[in-house]
Design goal:
Layout lengths: L2 H4 L3 H8 L3 E6 L2 E13 L14 H6 L6 E6 L2 E7 L8 E9 L9 H7 L17 E4 L8 E4 L13 E4 L9
Antiparallel strand pairs: 1-2, 1-6, 2-5, 2-8, 3-4, 4-5, 7-8
Amino acid sequence: MDKSFFSQDAEQVARELLGKTLVRNINGKEMRARIVETEAYYDDKDPASRACKNGDLKETMKMDAGTILVYGVHNNWLINFVTGKEGKAEAVLLRALEPLNFSVKCSGPGLLTKALQINKEFHKQSIIGNSDLKLINGGNESFEIVESNRIGVKKDLKKKLRFFVKDNEHVSRK
């Protein structure tokens, strides 16, 4: 994926990431997993967004499209990709992956970062041209996208911003 892919609106990127393959290179071994669930987040007008509070996460969400945003929640790392135009806070959270060449559970944002050994070291790196973590187009599988409200948020926007592959067993919550 190139910068123009990530320069789109967070909702569009969240939808288009479904079916793509995330590749993690660990000591020369490639771990591949299909993205099956995402959530879009916006600026400080989005009550569930990390951009509601001033600080590093808000500033990182305003960085260049394709920047990796990693932060901790309940002793888990969560990975996001910054989207949209630089200076405007937007990002997409990866919620669930379907392992393709390994068999560790990735049906939740904390589980997938543990399985792929994604930690704070990736924070503020770019996914574009990254040799340790990259995105590639998946196969030609067709699937239906389901929309729902985001998970685990107390206040949410009226718009449904969680997207997942219908009937995929690796989605975090059906």
